[in-house]
Write a structure and sequence with these properties.
With 244 residues, this protein is an alpha/beta fold. Helix content is 47%, strand content 23%.
Length: 244
């Protein structure tokens, strides 16, 4: 019997979700950064800067950036970890990974990259000092399995950082919905010639676990000292947890 899951507001077979999410990111990869700036008014850069600061990467650290997209976090981590460190840029989508790899190469940064599924990471146990995933967890079919894998590859004392869209402050919910379901698809059509993918992105945010639920999921995955920071009234949230 085929298991079902959510793709935005649709219910689809699990194997179909993987294909549909891949189609979305193949479609938007080339315009991903431009659209992120337009969608968030540039705020995504501030959210990522905050995440980088909370990571506290030091020279010599091993860092894994999952669903790393165009490489914003990996680039910063590589600079902080230095020549003695090791930073991996990974993504399940080859179009997104290619954009990120090429962007880093154009800046003179040749860091290791891997096309891989966060639910089946090709890395040994207890290997990384830090693991990050920014705006990628909500697209994963089995979030609990992915979180367990992230914990597995962390060293004892290592930290997981999950930056994701979350549940916005209640008084802002109505205008946020109007923006998400009217303005966002229109922008997608005008800039990326793809309204449907950005409609899915808006829906996927609504289907993603809220702040407290994700905190519980991280604890259930075996992480300790789990906490979160609401960013821009909860439009995004950074969750952190430590492997003890």
């Amino acid at each position: 019997m085929t298991n079902s899951t959510h793709f935005g507001y649709q219910t689809v077979a699990e194997e179909d979700k993987v294909k549909k999410v891949a189609e979305v990111f193949h479609s938007v990869a080339a315009k991903y950064d431009v659209m992120n700036d337009l969608m968030s008014g540039g705020l995504h850069r501030l959210w990522k800067t905050f995440t980088i600061a909370q990571a506290g990467v030091r020279p010599g650290f091993k860092v894994l950036d999952i669903a790393g997209g165009t490489g914003d976090l990996a680039k910063a981590f590589a600079k902080q970890a230095g020549a003695s460190g090791e930073v991996w840029l990974t993504d399940i989508n080859e179009s997104m990974l290619g954009v990120g790899r090429d962007r880093l190469l154009n800046k003179g940064m040749a860091i290791p990259t891997a096309l891989c599924d966060a639910e089946k990471l090709p890395f040994p146990d207890n290997y990384f000092d830090r693991v990050s995933v920014a705006f990628g967890l909500r697209n994963m079919t089995h979030k609990d399995a992915a979180l367990a894998e992230m914990r597995r590859v962390l060293k004892p004392g290592g930290k997981l950082l999950v930056l994701e869209f979350s549940k916005v402050w209640e008084p802002l919910q109505k205008p946020y919905d109007v923006y998400s379901f009217s303005v966002l698809p229109w922008l997608g059509k005008q800039i990326a010639n793809d309204a449907d993918s950005y409609r899915y992105l808006a829906e996927s945010i609504r289907m993603h676990p809220d702040q407290e639920t994700l905190k519980t999921m991280m604890q259930d995955a075996g992480l300790d000292k789990v906490t979160y920071f609401n960013l821009t009234a909860g439009v995004a949230a950074l969750h952190t947890g430590v492997k003890l």
